[in-house]
Design goal:
Blueprint lengths: L2 E3 L5 E3 L12 H18 L12 H34 L11 H15 L5 H25 L7 H23 L3 H8 L16 H11 L1 H7 L3 H6 L4 H22 L6 H13 L3 H25 L8 H21 L2 H5 L1
Antiparallel strand pairs: 1-2
Helix pairs in contact: 1-12, 2-7, 2-10, 2-11, 2-12, 3-4, 3-5, 3-10, 4-10, 5-6, 7-10, 11-12, 12-13
Keywords: Cell membrane, Ion transport, Iron, Iron transport, Membrane, Transmembrane, Transmembrane helix, Transport
GO cellular component, one term: plasma membrane
Membrane topology: Multi-pass membrane protein
């Protein structure tokens, strides 16, 4: 079994059991069925009476189906982004929220609104993708200059960078009288999703396929730059490609839905604790669990104060903060105590 310690966060190991490399196992099929059940519940959750109104089924296909589809695709995108970022940064506390990537995406959206008063969805998406990529590369440049690479220093740098970018975005928004755009972006919600406003999320399937094709290389890159280069891998190229894929995924989600905190932190860590850190075998699990978590949170957001709904980012932020604190406390335990 191959073991290593990454970024000071516990022991990472590749699964040694052949069964862990199989995808269609009973637990995985059960997880898929649970997610499908949540999707069905999502389709029939809402204030509008689908069966009792004359245009009920028209509304079903205009709003409910797009919303549920967007939930599934977004859950897979953000969970996948977190998994890839954790591999290439060698830190379990890293995801788009804790690296400033989402804040950079918001800044990109703001600049698009400044340059183009009524931008199309594709234009907003392009701006978010470009700024997400730039911001993530800046984060990596910061990491290269930091000698102390403990498990907490890396996300702290990302959170500080994100706070600076968020403050700058707020200043720009107030200066150009666009603070409403910033507020709408921070309130990540699926309420505005309807037919014609979510279709770009289908690109996430292409990103998922590309990550799966690069899975072995990304796993090797997760062993560290020295090890990756000794195995003949072009480390800088694979990190650049991974950053581009993450930027595209985060940019699409930011343009269509908004800010969704901690989803990329929760899901990969749960899967890692259960199955180890082999990207190829974990990727289907991460996508499915990401779909399930965000769909469940959205159902809660629609029912907790029905007939009104709260932003799904509030539910995700609450759950994510609890998981983040748990991971911090778990990481502080001595290895011997953790094993017992």
């Amino acid at each position: 079994m191959l073991k290593k310690t990454v970024g000071g966060v516990g022991n990472f190991s590749q699964p040694s059991s052949p069964n862990k490399n199989k995808i269609w196992t009973k637990p995985f099929i059960t997880a898929v069925l649970v997610v499908l059940a949540l999707a069905v519940i999502s389709l029939f959750t809402g204030v509008y009476d689908i069966s009792g109104k004359e245009d009920g089924w028209d509304m079903f296909f205009i709003t409910r189906v797009p919303r549920t589809t967007a939930l599934l695709l977004t859950g897979a995108a953000m969970a996948l982004s977190g998994l890839v970022m954790q591999l290439i940064t060698q830190n379990k506390f890293v995801e788009p929220t804790t690296t400033g990537t989402t804040e950079w995406a918001g800044l990109g959206l703001l600049f698009v609104y400044i340059l183009f008063p009524s931008p199309s969805l594709s234009l907003r998406m392009l701006g978010a993708i470009v700024f997400s990529f730039i911001g993530t590369m800046i984060f990596f440049l910061f990491l290269r200059r930091v000698k102390l690479r403990s498990s907490l220093i890396v996300p702290i740098i990302g959170l500080m960078l994100g706070a600076v970018i968020s403050a700058f975005s707020t200043f720009i928004g107030l200066f150009f009288d666009m603070s409403q755009n910033i507020a709408n972006w921070f309130i990540g919600s699926f309420a505005p999703i309807q037919a014609g406003r979510y279709e770009y999320l289908w690109l996430i399937i292409i990103i998922t396929i590309l990550v799966f094709l690069l899975a072995d290389r990304l796993t090797i890159a997760g062993l560290g730059e020295d090890v990756a280069k000794s195995l003949g891998l072009n480390y800088n190229t694979i990190v650049l490609i991974a950053t581009m894929l993450v930027a595209v995924a985060v940019g699409i989600v930011a343009a269509v839905v908004g800010n969704l905190p901690f989803l990329g932190l929760i899901v990969p860590n749960i899967i890692s604790m259960m199955r180890g850190d082999d990207l190829r075998s974990n990727l289907p699990w991460v996508c499915v669990l990401g779909m399930g978590v965000i769909t469940l949170c959205d159902i809660i957001s629609r029912t907790i104060i029905s007939p009104f709904e709260i932003s799904v980012s509030v539910i995700l932020g609450t759950v994510g903060a609890v998981v983040f604190i748990y991971l911090l406390l778990r990481n502080r335990k001595p290895k011997g105590a953790r094993a017992r």
